[in-house]
């Protein structure tokens, strides 16, 4: 569809009305600074020139900014941001909220006994928190292989010795084709797990490489990336994915592997059982010297009590080496949102770039509506993270090819609640938590999870909803192929006519939309098509 020569008079009127009635939730009016007006009229094909209508506006939207210009946010500790977002990784791994934080507390206590340097302790700290960055990348494969809930499968796997073929066989039989007959499950186990190492190693490799790559994107030290890549390696060489042995395994990875196992068993069965498992696997899974360091605080009831009963996030701050505290400026916060969008999108092959595409659509549309730079930035981050709650939804639902049952639909709808709860706990991101969680709200009140309607929805929320629907229609789903552009535009207009989507947002979007960004053609130098540099 060609770009319109000019915004319609109706759109101009609607925009003016919306701007007068609605205020972005990102900041108070005292903090908002008006951006220079963006010309409404553009010649066909001249979009690039129009999008940089003035040097002042471009400066407002530039992402690479000196920390001095962001002094208001200079005091945000990276620990607080990553620690709160690690709750999303816990959900993806099927673990109780706080698993990664508690693992970090255990691992850092072990590290202190090993007398690691501050540099190594800092690298260990973030390896412990981000060890599950790749956890979503094998969710669909795991779910398909077993025919079950990937989160339940991952949680159960943490409690078995997967180097023991008997344990693996029992695990496979118990979890394969959940709800089917014993005969069907037994046959599935025999046919699918004749050579369990092949499937396990492939999934472990995918997870390890994806996690390390995203950690690199977050500018984590190489030692952190190496530790994430080798977390599943075992001291005796029977680990995954490369079968590293002994000192071939990075020291930080050895600590992470032991700490996460101890945390899982301590939460499930108590401290005594956690230590029994650590000693049973000493010399096989775990470096004996690292287990010896664990032994030094077995009887520290204050530590284990704090781990189980206290709010772990404040305690996490005390674990970070004081000389290596990292603060997040605006650019780093943008990068964190982009990185976690990749974690979210890896959950299902049908959403491989969903969050990134929604961010691109929402950001470009917001600029068409001449929203302020502060509103645009908040909307972009909210779009990148709007589906973070889906990390807590099983792939048996996300990838289902037929209609969802009522119970399945109820579980699917919980993802917006999860998004809200996760982002509310993240410094700076809590400001757009409600916006991110509102992408399924509708003007007529028929959406979820709150059911807000009309003037209760801000302009940013209306734009996000339109962008989310547009992307979903334009991409393939388990139950249908991607729709052609003309069908997408037609359905968007039908949603407007039915009262669900905002006419302002949809008209602004459809005025320029010509399809989703192609990869890698539309990637920027930063590797992200959602970057404001690419708009």
Report on this model:
By secondary structure, the protein is mainly alpha-helical. The protein is 55% helix and 0% strand. The protein has 26 helices and no strands. The longest helix is centred in the middle third of the chain and has 22 residues, at 196-217. It is globular, with a radius of gyration of 24 Å. It starts with 8 loop residues before the first helix and ends in a 25-residue tail after the last helix. Residues 1-73 and 520-535 have low confidence and may be disordered.
Give the SSE layout.
Layout: H1 9-21, H2 47-51, H3 55-61, H4 78-92, H5 99-113, H6 118-129, H7 139-146, H8 150-157, H9 165-175, H10 182-192, H11 196-217, H12 222-229, H13 251-269, H14 271-280, H15 288-295, H16 301-309, H17 312-317, H18 330-345, H19 354-368, H20 373-385, H21 395-398, H22 406-424, H23 433-436, H24 459-474, H25 485-497, H26 503-510
Helix pairs in contact: 1-26, 5-6, 5-13, 6-12, 6-13, 9-10, 11-12, 12-13, 13-14, 18-20, 19-20, 19-24, 20-24, 24-25, 24-26, 25-26
């Amino acid at each position: 569809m060609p770009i319109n020569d000019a915004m319609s008079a109706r759109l101009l009127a609607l925009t003016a009305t919306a701007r007068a009635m609605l205020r972005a939730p990102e900041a108070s009016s005292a903090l908002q600074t008006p951006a220079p007006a963006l010309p409404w009229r553009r010649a066909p094909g001249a979009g690039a020139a129009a999008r940089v209508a003035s040097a002042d506006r471009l400066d407002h939207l530039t992402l690479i900014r000196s920390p001095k210009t962001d002094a208001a946010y200079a005091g945000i500790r990276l620990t607080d941001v990553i620690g709160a977002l690690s709750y999303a990784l816990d959900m993806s791994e099927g673990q109780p909220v706080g698993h990664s934080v508690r693992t970090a507390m255990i691992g850092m206590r072990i590290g202190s006994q090993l007398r690691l340097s501050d540099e190594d302790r800092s690298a260990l700290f973030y390896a412990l928190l981000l060890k599950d960055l790749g956890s979503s990348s094998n969710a669909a494969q795991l779910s398909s292989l077993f025919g079950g809930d990937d989160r339940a499968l991952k949680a159960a796997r943490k409690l078995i010795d997967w180097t023991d073929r008997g344990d693996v066989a029992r695990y496979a039989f118990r979890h394969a084709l959940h709800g089917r007959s014993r005969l069907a499950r037994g046959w599935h186990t025999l046919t699918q797990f004749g050579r369990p190492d092949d499937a396990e190693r492939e999934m472990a490799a995918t997870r390890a490489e994806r996690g390390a790559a995203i950690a690199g994107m977050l500018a984590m030290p190489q030692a952190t990336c190496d530790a994430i890549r080798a977390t599943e390696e075992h001291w005796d060489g029977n680990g995954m994915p490369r079968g590293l042995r002994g000192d071939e395994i990075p020291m930080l990875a050895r600590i992470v592997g032991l700490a996460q196992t101890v945390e899982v068993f301590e939460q499930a069965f108590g401290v005594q059982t956690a230590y029994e498992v650590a000693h049973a696997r000493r010399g096989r899974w775990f470096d004996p010297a690292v287990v010896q360091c664990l032994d030094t605080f077995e009887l520290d009831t204050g530590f284990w009590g704090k781990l189980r009963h206290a709010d772990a996030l404040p305690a996490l701050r005390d674990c970070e080496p004081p000389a290596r505290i990292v603060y997040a400026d605006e650019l780093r916060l943008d990068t964190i949102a982009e990185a976690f969008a990749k974690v979210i999108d890896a959950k299902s092959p049908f959403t491989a770039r969903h969050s990134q595409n929604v961010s691109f659509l929402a950001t470009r549309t917001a600029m068409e509506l001449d929203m302020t730079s502060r509103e645009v930035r908040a909307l972009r981050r909210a779009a990148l993270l709007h589906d973070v709650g889906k990390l807590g939804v099983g792939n048996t639902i996300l990838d289902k090819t037929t209609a969802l049952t009522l119970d399945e639909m109820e579980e699917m709808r919980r993802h917006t609640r999860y998004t809200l709860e996760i982002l509310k706990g993240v410094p700076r991101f809590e400001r757009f938590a409600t916006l991110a969680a509102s992408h399924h709200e509708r003007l007529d009140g028929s959406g979820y999870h709150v059911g807000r309607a009309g003037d209760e929805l801000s302009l940013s929320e209306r734009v996000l909803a339109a962008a989310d629907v547009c992307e979903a229609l334009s991409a393939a789903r388990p139950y249908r192929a991607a729709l052609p552009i003309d069908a997408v535009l037609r359905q968007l207009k039908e949603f407007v006519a039915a009262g669900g989507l905002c006419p302002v947002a949809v008209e602004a979007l459809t005025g320029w939309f010509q399809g989703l960004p192609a990869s890698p053609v539309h990637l920027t130098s930063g590797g992200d098509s959602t970057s404001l540099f690419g708009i």
